[in-house]
# Entry
Amino acid sequence: MTKIRIIAGPYTFMGKLEEEAAPKTCKAFLDRLPFESQVVHVRWSGEGVWIPLGDYDFGVTYENHTSFPAPGQFILYPGGISETEILLAYGGVRFASKVGQLAGNHFITITDDLDKLAEMGRSVLWSGAQKFRIELA
# Structure
């Protein structure tokens, strides 16, 4: 099990890669660590934050995909009818974009400090974009 550290603004979480359920997505993501960007609040999906990635190609297709990630689950939408993106659910999510409902590959699960997720999400909602980093633990 590959353990990772997720840093979103002042918040730090520990997590694991879902290598058995999404091996291709996890491998593609591992090859890009450390991953740095900014996280913003979702527009259509509910209680989540996301990293818009435009036409970035991770070289993966659907595996272990869902439209309803649970709090603490990351999904990667590999692109297609909408832009490539990574979404982290902190509450109820129905993954969607301006073109309608989407599905993304569940590839990371936060394992510690889940009680701080909602606080992080509200911080992004009310204070704006936050620096974001995923690295090996």
Summary: The chain has two helices and eleven strands. Residues 117-127 form the longest helix (11 residues). The chain has a mean pLDDT of 97. Helices lie at 23-30, 117-127.
